[in-house]
C-alpha cells in the first residue's frame, strides 16, 4: 500500500454540513454573549445588564444579540439557567452529614453563601431584578434541579419517619426555601443591618426551621 493510501486511511476528519457548522457557530456566539452578560451581572449588578451594554461588551451591534435571544428577557432566561447551575454546584459541594439536622443546616448555609457570592444572579433569579422577566417552565425546572439536594434530604427524612409524611415533600421544601429567602431578601433591601447582623438572623431562622421540622433530633 502506498504512503498516499496510508494517509487517506489515517484521515479521521469528520465532515460537517453547512447547517451543522452554522449551528455550532451560533451556539458558540450565544455562549459568548451569555458570558459577557454574566460578567456585567456579577461586576455591576442586574441593572447593568441591558442589550446595549452587552453589545458594547461584545463590540458588536445590538441586532446580533436580538437575533440570538429575541429580547432582554430571552437573555435573562439564559442567565437564570446559569444561576441554577451555580446554585446546584453550591449544594453539590456541601458536606453530606449523616445527621439530617446537620445536613439541613449545611444546605441552609450553602444557600446563604450562594446569595453572597453570586448576589447578581440571586437578585435576578429570586429578587425580581428584571421586572419584565418571569421564569418559564424550563427555568422553573432548572430551579427544581438546583434544589434537588434539599428535596432528597426532606424525602429521606420523611421515609425514616423523622418528618410526618402527611406533608408533601415539595411543600416542605417551599416553606423552608421561602423562609430563608425572606431573610436574604430583607438583608438585600437594607432592613437587617450589615452582613454579620443579617447572617446572625439567618442562622437563627434556619435553626428554628430545623428544630420545627426535626424536633426529636
TrEMBL record:
InterPro entries given in the database record: Homeodomain-like_sf, HTH-type_TetR-like_transc_reg, HTH_TetR, MT1864/Rv1816-like_C, Tet_transcr_reg_TetR-rel_C_sf
Domain HTH tetR-type: 27-87
Pfam families xrefs: TetR_C_33 (PF13305), TetR_N (PF00440)
Molecular function terms, GO-annotated: DNA-binding transcription factor activity; transcription cis-regulatory region binding
DNA-binding region extent: 50-69
Alphabetical keyword list: DNA-binding, Transcription, Transcription regulation
Name of the molecule in the record: TetR/AcrR family transcriptional regulator
